[in-house]
């Protein structure tokens, strides 16, 4: 008899219960694409609206959102290849335009009520776009074509899924939610030295790092260079790894060499609440994705015995399904009765 009263029969019973329960559940909806933080400051974003199988889809320009008529409605839409998207102006909020980040399309800048602009999407991908005058306020949108799931703009489904495309956007845990000039992580891997501007335009004035998020290779030296605008700034890591002086001199520099993999978040102390924040992403030398908090990745976990693994599998199957749980408990009781009547070891 297997250790801890677990047998192959128990595992199969739990799996059977899980299969029955899973068959009774409806299929899951299309997963939400990875927009790479594109919608972090978009107030009216609440998921991607599925408009597949429609030949034409209309999006309002100047819809209510982001503190006024400064939104696209809806901001994120999934369509089938060959669909024509029509943007229609409400006439509210001044002049707006529709400009693709990838450069695939661009409308006129106008405030005319009823003005329309259309574009037909033939290739699968995630197409991010914005209103240029109100982008920092959150007037941004995205068209997802087909089954694309990645964060790139206008790339094929294979590329956005990671086959030959850029690395997935790190999980910054809301760090960039109020950072107006954050779009996505700039890939600078392979560069020996990378420069970031301190006091760049953003967040309502010269209160930004540019670019705010950078991915670099282990061993890269990052140099922060002051513009002299916006008063005194500093560069302070959240985990204490580095800290510069608080100065306002144009041309002042501070540098730090990143040897260990991780995500290093930092900010300007006087202007942090305004959104003057940044991050340096360092992939693990062993091939990790650099999504930690500035600490090296763990080399592994505790050893697990086969018996303990079997218990874990059984319990997982059981608790995921009421039928599986009942089958698991019946199996346990049966094996315990057999164990009670079996002769002892000599």
Percentage of β-strand residues: 25-35%
Residue-averaged pLDDT, rounded? 78
**Low-confidence blocks of residues:** 1-29, 151-166, 286-311
CATH evolutionary superfamily of the largest domain: Cupredoxins -  blue copper proteins
- Termini distance? 16 Å
What fold name stands as the CATH topology of the largest domain?
A: Immunoglobulin-like
* Percentage of residues in helical conformation: 10-25%
What structural category arises from helix and sheet content?
A: alpha/beta
> What order do the strands of the largest sheet run in, or round the barrel if closed?
1-4-9-8-6
What's the Cα radius of gyration?
27 Å
Order of helices and strands: HEEEEEEEEEHEEEEEEEEEHH
Count of the separate structural domains: 3
Would you report the number of β strands?
18
CATH architecture of the largest domain: Sandwich
Quick structural summary:
The protein is an alpha/beta fold and 346 residues long. The chain is 16% helix and 25% strand.
Describe this structure as you would to a colleague:
The chain is of the alpha/beta class. It folds into 3 domains: 1-31 and 319-340, no CATH class; 49-160, Sandwich (Immunoglobulin-like); 186-282, Cupredoxins -  blue copper proteins (Immunoglobulin-like, Sandwich), CATH 2.60.40. The protein contains 4 helices and 18 strands. It has helices at residues 8-24, 157-160, 306-320, 322-341, and strands at residues 49-50, 56-63, 71-73, 76-79, 83-89, 99-100, 116-121, 125-130, 140-145, 186-187, 193-200, 208-210, 213-215, 220-226, 236-237, 253-258, 262-267, 277-282. The strands form 4 sheets. A 5-stranded mixed sheet has the order 1-4-9-8-6, with no helix packed on it. The protein is globular, with a radius of gyration of 27 Å. The model is unreliable at 1-29, 151-166 and 286-311 (pLDDT under 50).
């Amino acid at each position: 008899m297997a250790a801890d009263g677990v047998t192959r029969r128990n595992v199969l019973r739990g799996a059977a219960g899980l299969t029955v329960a899973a068959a009774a559940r409806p299929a899951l909806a299309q997963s939400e694409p990875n927009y790479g933080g594109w919608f972090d400051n978009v107030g009216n974003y609440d998921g991607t609206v599925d408009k597949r199988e429609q030949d034409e889809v209309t999006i309002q320009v100047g819809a209510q959102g982001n503190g006024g008529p400064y939104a696209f409605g809806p901001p994120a839409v999934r369509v089938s290849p060959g669909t024509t998207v029509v943007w229609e102006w409400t006439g509210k909020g001044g002049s707006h335009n529709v400009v693709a980040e990838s450069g695939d399309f661009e409308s006129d800048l106008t405030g005319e009520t009823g003005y329309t602009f259309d574009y037909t999407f033939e290739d699968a991908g995630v197409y991010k776009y914005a209103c240029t005058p109100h982008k920092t306020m959150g007037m941004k949108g995205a068209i997802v074509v087909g089954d694309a799931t990645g964060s790139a703009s206008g790339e094929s489904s294979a590329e956005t899924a990671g086959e030959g495309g850029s690395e997935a956007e790190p999980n910054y845990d809301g760090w960039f939610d109020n950072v107006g000039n954050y779009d996505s992580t700039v890939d600078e891997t392979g560069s020996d030295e990378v420069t970031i501007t301190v006091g760049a335009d953003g967040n309502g004035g010269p209160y930004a790092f540019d670019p705010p998020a950078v991915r670099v290779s282990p061993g890269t030296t990052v140099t922060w260079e002051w513009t002299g605008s916006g008063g005194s700034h500093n560069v302070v890591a959240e985990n204490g790894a580095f800290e510069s002086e608080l100065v306002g001199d144009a041309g002042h520099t501070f540098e730090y060499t990143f040897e260990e993999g991780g995500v290093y978040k930092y900010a300007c102390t006087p202007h942090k609440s305004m959104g003057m924040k940044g991050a340096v992403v360092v992939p693990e030398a062993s091939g990790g994705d650099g999504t930690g908090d500035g600490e090296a990745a763990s080399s592994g976990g505790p050893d697990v015995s086969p018996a303990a693994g079997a218990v874990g599998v059984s319990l997982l199957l059981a608790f995921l399904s009421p039928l599986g749980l009942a089958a698991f408990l019946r199996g346990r009781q049966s094996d315990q009765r057999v164990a009670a009547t079996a002769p002892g070891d000599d």
